[in-house]
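If your schedule permits, I should be very grateful for your opinion on a structural question. Please examine both parts with care and let me know of anything in them that strikes you as inconsistent. The record follows directly beneath this note:
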Amino acid sequence: MLIPRAPLAISRVSLASRSTLRATPRPSPITAQGRIASYSSFEGPKVKKVVTEDTTRRNGMIAAALIAAAAGLWYWETSRMGVYPSTARRDEFTVVVGRNVNRQTLTFERKTNTEIEEMLHENEASEVPARPGNPVARWDTNSIASNEPSEDRRAADIVPRGKEGETGQRDLAFFSVIDGHAGSATSQLLSRTLHPALSLGLAGLQAGIVPGRSWYGQIYDILTWAKTWSPINISKSLEASFVKLDDHISAAPIRALPDMLTDQSDEAREKFAALAAPAAAGAVVGTALVDAENDSVYVAVTGDCRAVAGWQGPDGWRSDTLSEDQMGDNPKEVARMRAEHPPYEGDTVIRNGRVQGGLQPTRAFGDAVYKWTTVQGEAVNALIKDAGEKPRSIRPWNFTPPYVTARPVVEYRRLKGANGEKLRFIVLATDGLWDRITSEEATLLTAAYLAEKKRADVNKAKLVQEIPVKTTEPRPFPVQDLPGSGKRDQGQWVFEGDANAATHLIRNALGGGDRKLRGELLSLNGKVARYFRDDMTVTVIFFED
């Protein structure tokens, strides 16, 4: 997320052109034309031969054995050196990274189709709620790593409500995709703690405790049995739980600083560095909450994860983008941040589309170097260095922190819309997916997937004609369009029979009908991969009719 993807520049190089890097196979009795060299053609004395039926059969058996032995020896020798038969040959391709004097051309070996498919299916999962009455019919999820290891995480939990033995008509279902940066410590922690923290906040709300309400207001609510379980209060609870959890993460190293004055052992420093890791790294989050009892769904987003809903009605499909990318190039976020800080910081709060010229998302968990004071940050970083770890630098112009918040923006929808519309699915994904396809394209691809999982490749603009998709107006930033005009018409979408809808979206995001491009994108490894694709995590939530 922090490294911008460069324009893809891939060229293919035939294996023959790099034969100097390969060992030369041993000679075999196979000619250039692929025929067995005839031993009887040797120029020698003319000898009269008597050919019998047994002799012919024996010579045929010998020839067949020689063919098998030669082929086996050639295959063993060449595969041992990394060269494969033509049916499984590994092509090489080059990528160009950097500019001007830093420009580099790097060569990679393309994975086989079998390896590509294994990558696409390795992390996929599909689950069906075991509680009848829950409006969630199924959810599909998958992820593809770019970083080594991946910094993305995901989570899904169903919280039963009501008496034991009841159906799922009162359940709460939580789904989150989590995109880490500067390491996976924050995303790893959130994958285990975010949903419990949200559940705890909602349990308080169910008991009548509304976040932000005064103590006498709380007493009034409890005594009068006021209805606190409402869309506006649920949204407040989600916001407060996000902020409270992030406060605990960012404040944990600061609270531990006094103890480090009395215990300066190596073990204490290592424990401190581990405690500080989730605060030092960062993560953005997209969470969907399904309230079964009230046929409602809430989407809370901190950062640039995104949620898109697909509605189906009597007159077709509608794409409803449920979140707005909270980035340094979003005018709304720029205005908000400048309003939260003194006028003299107007030019430093956001520089070159980034928070203080560094972080792209304007909202995130962790990233405490944008939240601590300079004194606090320097004290924490000194101990992290003593533990042998490399800390993130304290930001310049650190006058009035915090500059980054974990407070999400929450959107609310009923599962049944106006004019007979029904919510059929929500696509929740990290920016690795949205870097390569638009919100509207994700809706189109998922709607088409529900109609037909396996079919011939289809032109992008033609699929729009087959399954028209309207868009909700006004659309959040940035405005994106379906294929139908411009460069996005080029290429094809694929429907290869994936049982998992998240895999279907990832497959199309990685080249669609351009299978060579897909293979090359997934064959990149190391730091170079980040220039062309990001970690990609997708969850598709399906709702019953």
User: Anything to note?
Assistant: The radius of gyration is 30 Å.
